[in-house]
Amino acid sequence: MTKQRIKWADTMKAGSIMAVVLYHTGIQADVKSMAYLLCLPAFFFVSGLFASATSGFGTALKRSMRLMWPYLIFGVLSWVAWLAVGRRYGSDAGEAIAWWQPLWGLVVGRSEGIIQNAPLWFLPCLMVVEWLFYVVMRCPSRWTWVCTGLLSVAGYYMGQVLDWHLPWSMDTAMTILPLYVLGYATHRWLEAWNERHSVPQGIAVWIVAVLGVACVWYLNPGIKLSAGHYGHPVLFYAGELLVVLFWYMTALGIGRMPYLNHTMQWLGRQTLWILCLHLPLFGVIKGALLVVGVPLRFYTTNAGSLTLWAGSLVLSIPLILLINRLTSVLGARTPRVSPGA
After folding, report:
1. Could you tell me the pTM of the whole model?
2. What is the rounded CA–CA span in Å between residue 247 and residue 70?
3. Distance (Å, rounded) from C-alpha 163 to C-alpha 69?
4. DSSP conformation letters of 167-211
5. Least C-beta-crowded within 10 Å: which of 61, 222, 264, 286?
């Protein structure tokens, strides 16, 4: 993989994580649904870009641990914060939630159970996707897409039709597996396109992607991967591909803007930490502003939502620098797995 390709992949992740953070605010419903549509497909696709069909069991296990350690550490730390503060003063105050339920939610690994930090559901889901890829790549090459398609149909049917939801979002992982495999299969072609396309071609493709995403957003509302809600199967998969195309072309465009490109690349390399930190930082921001007289109802407005969005991204920077410094001192590599983190 060339350095140039790594740059645009990081930019895709940066745009996606910004959409994730926006989705978790109280922004108005239409913007929230668009943010959700934009936030997840690129993560699975970019993770596939860096996959290897020849990796052994040990490498696959190492990638899993790079996802599971942050999942467990931030899950437990968020649970402690929930016990101390959120259970008494947050949205869960007054709810009949036992102290052990969030810990059990970590074991099950679904967003509705991880009440202390719901976005963490993505990490075990991505881990399952990577193990499914590992299995699919052991099939004869002519059966790769057949096996991928069968798994995705089974996952879609379980989630959308039967309303069956497996631990660690296995049904969602099966449904989204084609995006991961597609990322693996197209990385060389995308590299070549990055090098040879003209600016007018890029603009034309970007406009097509924007219009396509807008149409899918209008025609297939209510998508929520973590809950197994996909809507119409053709519109769902078409929408996922169009979102990937949108972020890819956006990343190539941002690549022509040096200062913005540098910032987006840095954010893209830190998406794992932003994923884990942004909801706890929401609580910090709300608590700090409540002390100076800002009521909690402010965060149900668009202005309050944008305050949380921007504030959490800014506050995450010193924490990420501290985490990276600590991992460096301890001799550990900062995880580069994609939420693609």
Report:
1. 0.92
2. 26
3. 30
4. GGGHHHHHHHHHHHHHHHHHHHHHHHHHHH--HHHHHHHHHHHHH
5. 222
One pLDDT digit (tens) per residue for the chain, 341 residues: 444 447 899 999 999 999 999 999 999 999 999 999 999 999 999 999 988 888 888 888 998 999 999 999 999 999 999 988 877 776 666 677 888 999 999 999 999 999 999 999 999 999 999 999 999 999 888 899 999 999 999 999 999 999 999 999 999 999 999 999 999 999 888 888 888 888 899 999 999 999 999 999 999 998 999 999 999 999 999 999 999 999 999 999 999 898 899 999 999 999 999 999 999 999 999 989 999 999 989 999 999 999 999 999 999 999 999 988 887 776 645 444 445 55
State the DSSP H helix or E strand holding residue 326, giving kind and residue range, or none if neither.
helix 302-329
Structure tokens at 74: 């931030």
Buried b (16+ CB within 10 A) or exposed e, 302-339: eebbebbbebbbebbeebbeebeeeeeeeeeebbebbb
